[in-house]
Task: inverse folding
């Protein structure tokens, strides 16, 4: 019986537990044996109890749980070959040669590297006497399948990542709460939202909450952004709006790209427009809580597809990543999706915003 392991890695996101549930149950339903690797790559390197056989009932109720119930961690040991050799040995010991990883682009890149290195790791296990030729006979290839779990919606090639709509929902709820107090006092709020180098959360929160102004990493403000923002906000105020909401994506200032910080915006609103202004950083609330219906559905459909991809893979099949495009669950080439994602991030870092915007447009046009 084929043994398939599932693991979550990198920053958690709502829906990851649902993805684990789907993989475990589809694995068992397909007549295979399911394993969960606890604590991300750390669990793969440490092995033992951290690579646990999973039964159908072990994942009962996981659809409505937040975060990832099998844990996630940043693992330095897996970055080095000796760590990956130990990980390969632990997998051989359990008889696992297929791994489904739910994480961001960094975690998925690590997984594909592991797959590429796998034959030489297996050889090394034999030459160093850790395993006999007989023991590794059936471990010629490692199957890797990626699921994208991230609140940032930052992977090229997919319309949505597992967690992004829950996070957006959380942001909208928080802004609704802020609206109530802002309205009462006629105040302005500058709200910082997450998203590392992707402005999707900020942009969609702006659209969904009717924000007055949004700062994104992909779209730096014009030279005269101060006048532009102030004139828009005063216009809104003159039209009778009692509150002002400005959203700043963390990537718009953390990486010093646009040099806009929430405090700068606050000072401007206070000093130039004389608005009583507060700054709110939403922080990890955005990654917490349970998954919304869309993320539960996405996690389940994609988890099922990931197991099918494992069972249909040949040694020649490049590692796939499970995406959603125009409401259809599809498989794409994992490393091509990662490459495109990195290109856009590099363009933003190099302040080539036009290219970055074209890259994002291409993603949507795809
Ligand atoms: O990538 C997901 C994310 O939540 C980003 O939006 C944010 O920049 C980062 O992780 C925060 O990471 P940490 O939890 O390590 O502070």
Result:
């Amino acid at each position: 019986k084929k043994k398939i392991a599932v693991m979550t890695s990198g920053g958690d996101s709502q829906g990851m537990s649902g993805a684990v549930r789907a993989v475990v149950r589809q694995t068992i339903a397909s007549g295979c044996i399911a394993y969960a690797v606890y604590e991300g790559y750390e669990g793969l390197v440490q092995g033992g109890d951290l690579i646990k056989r999973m039964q159908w009932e072990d994942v009962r109720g996981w659809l409505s749980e937040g975060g990832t119930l099998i844990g996630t961690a940043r693992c330095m040991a897996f970055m080095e070959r000796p760590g990956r050799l130990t990980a390969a040995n632990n997998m051989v010991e359990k008889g696992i040669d297929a791994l489904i990883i739910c994480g961001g682009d960094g975690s998925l890149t690590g997984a594909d590297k592991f797959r590429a290195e796998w034959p030489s790791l297996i050889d090394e296990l034999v030459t160093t006497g850790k395993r006999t030729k007989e023991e590794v006979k059936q471990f010629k290839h490692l199957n890797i399948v990626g699921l994208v779990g991230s609140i940032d919606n930052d992977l090229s090639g997919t319309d949505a990542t597992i967690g992004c709509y829950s996070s957006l929902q959380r942001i909208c709820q928080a802004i609704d709460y802020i609206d109530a107090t802002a309205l009462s006092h006629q105040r302005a709020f500058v709200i910082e939202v997450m998203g590392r180098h992707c402005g999707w959360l900020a942009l969609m929160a702006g659209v969904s909450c009717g924000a007055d102004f949004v700062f994104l990493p992909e779209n730096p403000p014009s030279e005269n952004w101060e006048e532009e923002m102030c004139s828009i906000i005063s216009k809104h105020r003159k039209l009778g709006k009692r509150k002002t909401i400005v959203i700043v994506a963390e990537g718009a200032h953390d990486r010093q790209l646009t040099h806009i910080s929430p405090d700068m915006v606050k000072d401007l609103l206070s000093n130039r427009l004389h608005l009583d202004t507060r700054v709110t950083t939403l922080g990890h609330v955005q990654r917490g809580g349970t998954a919304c219906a869309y993320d539960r559905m996405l996690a389940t459909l994609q988890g099922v597809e990931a197991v099918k991809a494992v069972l249909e893979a040949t040694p020649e099949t490049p590692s796939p990543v499970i995406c959603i495009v125009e409401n259809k669950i599809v498989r794409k080439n994992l490393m091509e999706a990662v490459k495109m994602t990195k290109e856009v991030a590099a363009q933003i870092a190099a302040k080539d915003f036009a290219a970055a915007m074209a890259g994002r447009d291409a993603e949507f046009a795809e």
In short: The longest helix spans residues 105-127. The radius of gyration is 23 Å. The first strand starts at residue 3 and ends at 8. Residues 11, 104, 150-152, 194-196, 250, 287 surround 6-O-phosphono-beta-D-fructofuranose (CB under 6 Å).
